Amino acid sequence: MTGRLDDLYRSSSSHASIRMEVRTSDFSRTIEIESWSVGDDLALMVIRAPAREAGTATLRTEEGLWNYAPRADRLMRIPPALLSDSWMGSHFSNDDLMRESELDDDYGTVLDWHQEGDARFLRATMTPHADAAVVYTSVVQLLEPDTWLPIRVDYYDDNEIVRRMHFSNVKALGDRSLPSVLELVPSDKPTELTRVVYEEMEFDIEIDGNLFTPRGLRRASRKR
Question: Which of 90, 95, 115, 122 could share a disulfide with 143, CB 3.0–4.6 Å?
């Protein structure tokens, strides 16, 4: 169950075109991203727009998370102390990108039915194992009962929801039908959000492993 949720937007490999919209009390911005992944540990995200940030990249490997600044041609490792910081001004953190907490490894899951108005959902309540180094005390997912696609995810700290993720606009992405829009809303700032739109996606494709190296990153960063 949790392994299936872990793998929803990834596979043995993936390639995607993504639009990320960030809305805060101070600013709004839209970023276009190209991403690649292989397995659970290798991922590369390159910003394609706006022009002033084009080529900026984030690389994830088994050894950690790295940011690349193309103007200075600098590849900088993100230290553990900064994993909780925002990624590109969004409501996602570096730790979200690192995905250090794997649902299948770190959480136990209880399934039951949940009613909201006339709608009935499958509810997956996940609580961390005693030895799991995770941020949230529980994660609760509402799933469409026929497809098991996520509708909403609530992240708890003790008994309080600290952020909520909404999933919508199911469409064909590669060979799968998936929610193409994800909206993350922090509970302490309910008028803010980060919206991720998967515009195109393909799975189980051949990707050169050299892409996830400093040289491969720089080559992908220069592509226009």
Answer: 122
Residue 198's SS3 state is strand
Q: Which of 120, 140, 116 is nearest to 2 (CA)?
A: 140
Question: What is the torsional sign of CA 37, 216, 99, 132?
Answer: positive
pTM of the model: 0.92
Under DSSP, the state recorded for 93 is B
Give dist(CA 177, CA 199) in Å, integer: 13
Residue 133, helix vs strand vs coil:
coil
Find out if CATH 3.40.50.300 is the number for domain 2-222. no
Match 């003790």 to its residue by tokens: 158
Residue 212: strand, helix, or coil: helix
Q: Where are the domains of the chain?
A: 2-222
Inter-CA distances, 169 with 21, 89, 199, Å? 16, 24, 11
What region does 102 belong to: left with phi over 0, alpha with psi -120 to 50, or beta?
beta
Each residue's pLDDT tens digit, 95-146: 888 764 467 778 899 999 999 999 999 999 999 999 888 889 999 999 999 9
Do residues 36 and 44 touch, judged by C-beta distance below 8 A?
A: yes
